[in-house]
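User: Round two. Same drill as before: sequence, then structure, for each protein.

Assistant: Same drill it is. First protein:
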Amino acid sequence: MDYFLELFLGGLTRGSIYALIALGYTMVYGIIGLINFAHGEIYMLGAFTGLIVASLLTVFGLNQYAILVLASLVAMVYAAAYGYTVEKIAYRPLRQASRLSPLISAIGMSIFLQNYVRLAQTSDFLPFPALIPDLAFMEPYAHIIGSAELVILLVTAMVMLLLTAVIRFTRIGRAMRATAQDKGMAMLVGVDVNRVISITFMIGSALAALGGVLIASHIGQINFAIGFIAGIKAFTAAVLGGIGSIPGAVLGGFVLGCTESFATGYVSSDYEDVFAFGLLVLILVFRPAGILGRAAAEKV
């Protein structure tokens, strides 16, 4: 039973990171109906920014809590700036073009960011400091769930609640919902659609950076290529849950994370991706809109 719980909680931890990244995919898709394939690289940039900031703050002798918070905040701000830039360069000029054009542009941005970090930093794996401290009250449960995993789960839960509150009860949240429903009508009633889209990219990028710092601190290393596979897995989670649905992105992340965890624990780590993408195929065959997605009717 302990082994099952360990795998389950480990899956939730992994799924939490997928969920944080998947939120960026699903929010952007919900607003403009396109997939930002450079989003995984924003996650990677956030992790590298966290490493640089943490290394600088360590010199000043700050404790782990302060370093974790400051590194996460700086990484989120930096990634948000990149998200804004990606939207302005790769998407906004092509908003009226065919759907294939911004897709190719986003893939090109992804390749550019990967090679930019590889040349600016290194192609080798870099050690990442353990910023999440061990919690004394977690010692009796350390064989099931570690302090880092607990912190990741709690932070993810708080972020989800905060994001839900922002979208439901704030002015920018109402503007996002209006833009997602009908951009033309939203503009007629005074919504600055360009600003809403930019803010959506920035929020999604900031959440991805937060996930990058947390998981890098937990795993202990980063590399310029970590954004690619993480981005693909998070996109899979978004599709599983129902692309365009924020609760669906969270649920899809948890389902994908638990699937990988149980596949690794009970079968083999070699089949981790097989089970993950096999599950995606099954969901799309029997429920093409995803677990919580709704089939959209289109006028012809």
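Second protein:
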Amino acid sequence: MKQIINEIPIKTTNSFKVNGLEIEIPDNITTHFHGYEVNDDHNLILETTKTTIMNHDAVKLNIKITSNNESPIIFNYYFDQADNLIEEINIEVLNNVHANIIFNYAALSKEQHFHYLKQTIKLDNESSLNFSTINMLSSNATSIIKVDNEVLSNANLTYNLIDLGGSTKVSSSYGKTYDNAINNLNVIYLGTNEDLIDTNYYYINEETLANCAINVQGILLDHAKKTFRGTIEFVSGATSSVGNEIENCMMLSNDASSISVPLLLCNEEDVIGSHSASNGEINKDQLFYLMSKGLTKKEAINIIIMANINPILNNINNEKIVNDITHSIISVL
């Protein structure tokens, strides 16, 4: 069954092939959910039920964060053999609660796993959440990640998406930011072989002093193909709000393909908005300088890449997971 996803809010000519992605969703997917490994309950209110997504049986998790936690709540899910998972996760952080959550998906085998993840995040007034989703599935997998968030007055959300695993990586995020709230999206993607990477991020400043940011750092090798769509919208009444958008794609192969469509939509005068997108080779001056200090070309490239992505990795408060991510990236460069 084919579906059109990641549709851009302002369409352009179809010849550019950026208006949306047509993707094949297999009809014979059977969800096999064997449960998360959770490091601690952290006074969670956790409810697991069944639902239907895309006409397939799916798992639904409702999570309510009722108390502060300094150390991260870690949900580990390990795909084994021919596991497939279609799931919906709804998370609410209550007023004045501050939380740190990591959803870590990894593969124990090299099967063609299918993972469809729909996350809905709501931050109540004065709350904060540092949330990370890690995709480290096998190179044969398909990963589709869809995130909706709502950040209410004076709340602060940092969402980190590390999208490494799978030959098909599709991600989207739709965010609403309200009065004096902060809503930050950080993304790292990696494309190797003939990977397809398709993204669509759309963030709206709804009220005064709203502040949102999209920061995307990508790496492409071999014949990988990537399409980036990033939109920040200032609606009427979002006075004195700020929106910044950056996408930096580091291309390590002349055969890789990168398309970027950054957009700013504005219906309010008193705002600050910016966007930028860069697609190209590693900076030759930086490369020459590091190699002049005795480093090999590979070592110098590794340092430059890690310097770009480390500010995002620093948001993930778990040393083992960060080391696994770093190793996964460095091993293919």
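The helical segments are 284-292, 297-313, 319-330.

User: Perfect.
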